[in-house]
Amino acid sequence: MVFVGDIAVPREARASLPSTAGYFGTSSVIANLEGAILDRSVEPQGTSLYNDHAVIEYLRENNFRLLSLANNHIVDIDGSPRATIRVLREHGILTCGAGDSLDEASRPVLLEEREGAVAFIGFGWDTIGCRIASADRAGVNPFALDSVLDGIKKAKENFPGKPIVLLMHWNYELEIYPQPMHRQIAQMAVDRGVSAVVGCHSHCVQGIELYKGCPIVYGLGNWFLPEGMIFGRNLRFPDFALRQLAFEWIPSTQEMRCHWFSYNRGTRSLDFEQSEALQDSRSVAKLTPFVGMGHREYVQWFKLHRRKKLLLPIYKDCRSRRINRLKDLWVKGRHLLISAALAANWKAELR
Fold first, then answer.
1. Residue ranges in the chain modelled with pLDDT below 70
2. What per-residue string of b and e applies to 162-196 under the rule 16 or more CB within 10 Å gives b?
3. Nearest Cα to 184, choosing from 233, 145, 210?
4. Please, are residues 244 and 206 in contact by the beta-carbon 8 Å criterion?
5. Nearest to 93 by CA among 128, 123, 58, 126
6. What pTM did the predictor assign?
7. Alpha-carbon separation of residue 1 from 29, 111, 222, 254 (angstroms)
8. DSSP 120-139
9. For the CA atoms of 338, 339, 345, 348, what is the dihedral angle to 10 degrees?
10. Can you tell me the distance from the alpha carbon of 21 to that of 17, in angstroms, rounded to the nearest whole number?
C-alpha cells in the first residue's frame, strides 16, 4: 500500500491531477481528503478548501482505496461529512476519521488487501481547527491520548490479529519536525500494538522513524493542493514545501520505499523525481536527525530546531493535560484572529 498526503482539488485545477499509473502498480493508495466533495450544483464560497466532484473519477482510476476525513476542512462547507462519505462508498472507496457522530468518526475500518486485511483509524487535532464529533454532532475523531488508546483497543476487538494503522492530522502548518507530544503518542501507540502511524497537515514532508521496527511517518506533504488564485485566495507555499512524498509499505514483509515528487508551478502538476528504499534515503535521514532520541532529549532538541516559533507553544507531554488545554486556548485564539483577517481580505477583494 502507498500513502500520499493532502488532496484538495478546486474546479480551476481539476485537469492537472497527478496520475499514479506507472509508479505504484496495483498497490492500494491511501490519502487525506482535505475537504468535502462538492455536488456539481454547489458554488463554493469564501476561503474554504473543498474537492470538485471530478476528484471521484481520479480517485477510482488511480486505485485510491481509503481516505482519511479527519481534518480541519471536512466540514468547512457542508456541516456534515455524510454526503462525501456516501459518494465515496458508492464508488468503492472507504473512509475513516469523520462522521455524523463520535461513534461513526472513531470507528475502525478494515481494508482488504491481497496480502491480508489492515485496520485503519483516523484522528484530527482540534488545536489546528478540526471540529471534534460528539454523540450528536458531526465532526472528526479527536487526536488525544485517551482517544488513540481507545481506538487501538476497539480495533483489536473488532479485527483481532490484523495490523493497525493510525492516520493522524496533527502539528502546525509548515512545521518540519514533529511536536514532542505527537512523537510521544505515536510511540505509545506502537507500544500498544499499532503497526504504523502516518501523519498529515503540515503541508510539507517531515521525517520518518522506525520505532520497534514500525514506521512513524510524521508528514507526507501535499499530494495535490495546487497554487494560484484558488479557494478564494492567492495560495502559494514556500519552496521547501513543493516536494511531496508517497510512502510505500508492505506490512507482510516490512518493505518500505519512498517515492519522491515535486510540484511544478509552471504546469501546476507533480513531476516524478525518484524511488528509493527507506533505508537508503538521504532525504529522510536529513529530515529526521533526531532518530533514536529519548523523549526528554527530543524536547530540548525541538526547542532549538523547530521552524514555527512565533507565538506558538511547544506541546511537550501528553500527560500535562491542564497545561495543554491552556496552550490550546492560545493557539485557537491566534487561529481565529488569522481567519478573521483572511475573511476580511477576501471580502475586500470582492468589492
1. 14-15, 339-351
2. bbbbbbbbbbbeebbbbbbbbbbbbbebbeeebbb
3. 145
4. no
5. 58
6. 0.94
7. 6, 10, 18, 11
8. EEEEE-GGGTPPBPBTTB-E
9. -140
10. 12
Q: What pLDDT, on the 0 to 100 scale, is given for residue 40?
A: 76
Residue 272 identity: F
Do 151 and 165 form a contact (C-beta atoms < 8 A)?
A: no
Question: What nine digits make up the cell of 252?
Answer: 507482510
| Grid cell locating 82 | 455524510
> How is residue 173 annotated by DSSP?
T
53 DSSP 8-state letter: T
Task: Please name the residue that has the C-alpha cell 509508479.
Answer: 23
Cell numbers at residue 42, please?
A: 454547489
DSSP 187-247: HHHHHTT-SEEEEE-SSSB--EEEETTEEEE--B-EEE---EEETTEEE---GGGGEEEEE
CA distances from 268 to 193, 201, 265, 285 (A): 40, 20, 5, 28
The residues, any chain, with a CB within 8 Å of residue 284's CB and separated by 6 or more, are: 207, 208, 258, 278
CA torsion 152→190→168→102, rounded to 10°?
Answer: 10
Q: What is the pLDDT of residue 46?
A: 77
C-alpha 3/C-alpha 6 separation (Å) is 10
- The pLDDT value recorded for residue 43 is 76
What one-character-per-residue DSSP string does 268-283 give? TEEEEEEEEEGGG-HH
Q: How far apart are CA 165 and CA 68, in angstroms?
A: 11
Rg of the chain, C-alpha, whole Å: 19
With contact defined as beta carbons under 8 Å apart, do 241 and 204 qualify?
Answer: yes
Contact yes or no for 203/236 (Cβ under 8 A):
no
Q: What is the pLDDT of residue 346?
A: 47
Backbone phi, psi, residue 248, to 5°: -100, 135
Contact predicate 29/17, CB 8 Å: no
